[in-house]
Amino acid sequence: MSRAKSAHGRVGRPPVTSRSQILTAARHLIDHIGWEKLTIRRLAAEIGIGATTLYHHVRDKEDLLFLLIHEYADQIPHPDLPSEPRDRIIACATAIHDGLAAWPWAAEVLTTDGFIARLSDSALLLVETIVAAAIEYGCTPEQAVHVFRNIWYYTVGEILVRAHSPGRRPDDERPDQPVALFDGLDASRLPHLAALGDQWATLSWRDTYPQALSAFVDGLLSQATERPGQRADG
């Protein structure tokens, strides 16, 4: 089968005109070299076109990354929403966590200032639901924003720490040999850490996000809706 010819009659790869082809190639590069090493020039070489041609489709690397995130966010299934606002917050936060956990590099990109203004409507719907549920629970709009922000910081932090921790194992799998992280500690000064030394790695590998999220949301909502003098009277 002959290869396609260019407008000048030269034999070569067909020009890329599809954004989906560009995004597919970008995902392939990210999977193999990481998003930090992805460049427009490298992507153009991967596709077989000039960098100038690629700039007709994307403005720069940041634009490309957000196009990928938009496409991915549109594929994340939105959860069935419970009737209780507190439970809706947890359901949406879990959906965000699970989506980003599968694509941790996106969580790093989304740590940039003003990221929320660049999210797609599909992703913003989860944010809207969290804010609306917090207001329905009794938060002011300002408090609802703080509730989302704190959940976001916790969720992204959890994802990035786990993504950058080498040798992670499934929750139910223990290391073959105990890892004494605190070997040699002065037990008289740090007795609890010394005692937990060979268990710390195994315990920290466990995924406790669901339980911690529930406790975190309960604390945020309780603090936000606490009335003046309520703590002293209680």
UniProtKB/TrEMBL annotation:
Q: Mind listing the UniProt keywords for this protein, alphabetically?
A: DNA-binding, Transcription, Transcription regulation
Pfam families in the cross-refs: TetR_C_1 (PF02909), TetR_N (PF00440)
The answer to whether UniProt assigns keyword Magnesium to this entry is no
Residue ranges the UniProt entry marks as DNA-binding: 39-58
Q: Which InterPro entries match?
A: Homeodomain-like_sf, HTH-type_TetR-like_transc_reg, HTH_TetR, Repressor_TetR_C, Tet_transcr_reg_TetR-rel_C_sf
Residue ranges constituting the HTH tetR-type domain according to the UniProt record? 16-76
Name of this protein: TetR family transcriptional regulator
Q: Which organism is it from?
A: Streptomyces daqingensis
